[in-house]
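S.,

Sequence below, as promised.
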Amino acid sequence: HNAERQEALLAALAAELGTVVSARPAAAGTHLVVRIEDVSLSATQLAMRARAMGVAVEPLSFSRRVDAGDREVLLHYARLTPGEIREGVRLLARAAERRSLGAGAGAASA
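The prediction came back faster than expected:
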């Protein structure tokens, strides 16, 4: 089941976020590390915007002892259906849009 979920996540990331992020399949596990390639967007910014839309995304910098920048997020998928994964990534793509910078959290929750 996790392989199917991971495939759904990778496909949704490619379809919705294209070159904004990059991710590679993991041999095992229930989460993916996703690198933000858009230099105008940090992992912390993306996580805050996504949370305002009801999507939990964890900046990997929160889990590291050594500063490796704020370019990666951790996406968990074990408890989600492929449909929930696609919807979450669709919202994540909206959170990553540059025009949402000025919208503020209030507009995102409307």
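Strands lie at 21-23, 31-36, 58-59, 72-76.

Coffee later?
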